[in-house]
Amino acid sequence: MATAIVIGSGLGGLAAAVRLKHKGYQVTVFEQNDYAGGKLHAIEKDGYRFDLGPSLFTLPYLVDDLHALFPEHKIPFTYLKKEVGCHYFWEDGTIFHAFTDQKEFVDHAGDIFVESKRILNDYLVKSKSRYNLTKSLFLEKSLHKVSTYLSIDTIKALFNAPFLGLFNTLDQENQVFKNPKMTQLFNRYATYNGSSPYQTPGIMSMIPHLEIGIGTYYPHGGMHRISQSLYELAQEIGVEFRFRESVSQITHDNGNVTGITTKNGAFNADIVVSNMDVVPTYKNLLRNVKEPKKTLEQERSSSALIFYWGIDKEFPELDLHNILFSEDYPTEFEYIFEKKSLSNDPTVYINITSKETKTDAPQGCENWFVMINAPGDYGQNWEELIETARKNIIEKINKCLKTDVSNHIVTEYILDPRGIEKNTSSYRGALYGAASNDKFAAFLRHPNFNSQIKNLYHVGGSVHPGGGIPLCLLSAQITADLIPDA
Prior knowledge:
The protein is α/β, with parallel strands linked by helices. It contains 16 helices and 19 strands.
């Protein structure tokens, strides 16, 4: 039987393993940690359960499709659709509930922000059109294969290039709104791929369609259930997992991959798929292969500073997803991407899964995942930054919610860019690999195949089509389509 090795059991690695098994390969996954899931991990602390990684779930069909490959295996995985995607707060007391139904969103936003409902609706219609025009080219196929550019979908996308917003920034695109709060709300979508709205191209205005058009979802059991359901499926179909076994080298001969090496010896394979970030893949596992310098030198996406707080009180004004906006958004991104630091007025995101899964916190309490966008690790004094950020975050929460949250924090766990890099091998702790602060960024991402070594492939957030749950799953789908059946 043909054999395949997957390096890393992040979401892209798990999805690749399932798809390769479906193609008839004997699959072994090597993982440095003692758990599967990569960034989609979870912890329990003092009676509170926290999802450590991504907290937003869109395009659930991508997970369903993987389970559907093996319909005889009934792995529990269910989810609900949220009527309200996010609760937004500003210091002046403005509160906005972002409905996931387009008409409700437009009506409510028009009333709250005194904004033209026609302009709002036209914006969301354009968001949908851009998504539908580009998903085939940018999200579902390899940008690095000539055949991609010969399809009808690609010709349509290229023909509509002036309409796609490639030649202005997302912020410029969002100046269509009169109310600066509305512009700020739609600028936030740049953070979904770790970029700045003042640099990323206007094509990113297609992202709101994922939430407002297609929907925001919550997996029963929390985000961790996504990775665990795929891990359980992989186990049931016969994928072998070797935990606590780091790969030290990808071996190859005469331009063909031959396998990998670990502390336990050499393992041969016909196919190798690396779910490791491409930077450490080249620097640590492919040391004798010429690095794709331009790709590896791309600006890294933002990282995160996350406080996991057990709160001994319930806040009815909060929901699953909550945003407390900065009063100075441009300065916040200037600090992250130019100064590699944190502004004193950060935008605060609070995710509370106990709103949906009551057992995630003790009765009458809530589990808060409190995150701010942060630069990657460039050797900053993180202890000092964390101490200051904690004070600024509490101040922001107190102003927006009219409370003193510090009196209600009963347990705490902190994750910063250093920990993210250590746990997941993400270079500098970047959450999405390379940033998209350039109109050509999509084309500069590493391809899903290796141009120097045959039968070596790459999946995950650091390669095409990008970071985040849907794109990692799509990277595995694109890669599997490039690999012949066993």
